């Protein structure tokens, strides 16, 4: 099963600068484990305590997985997963 994962700039140090990588898995959790086998350290940036980190947004085919089944969201061959760090802050 091939799933395209789009990687934000801040995490590209784990993917040797690649903007997108392929992964496998029947769920988002399995996909993250698969990515970890090829891109060591990326899981720690995405997952904490078995759930997605609070400031990491993940989209499955442009839908926020938090409104689906979170880290248990089911994936299919050909899906696109986009990882985006949350952006906050600024000045008044």
Please characterize this protein's 3D structure.
The protein is an alpha+beta fold. The chain has one domain: Roll (Ubiquitin-like (UB roll)), CATH 3.10.20.30. 17% of the residues lie in helices and 27% in strands. The chain contains two helices and seven strands, in the order ββααβββββ. The strands form two sheets. A five-stranded mixed beta sheet has the order 2-1-7-5-6, with helices on one face. It has a two-stranded antiparallel ribbon with strand order 3-4. The longest helix has 11 residues, at 28-38. The chain starts with a strand and ends in a 7-residue tail after the last strand. The model has no long low-confidence stretch (mean pLDDT 93). InterPro entries: Beta-grasp_dom_sf (IPR012675), MoaD_arc-typ (IPR010038), Mopterin_synth/thiamin_S_b (IPR016155), Sulfur_Carrier/Prot_Modifier (IPR052045), ThiS/MoaD-like (IPR003749). This is MoaD/ThiS family protein. It comes from Streptomyces chitinivorans. It holds the Pfam family ThiS.
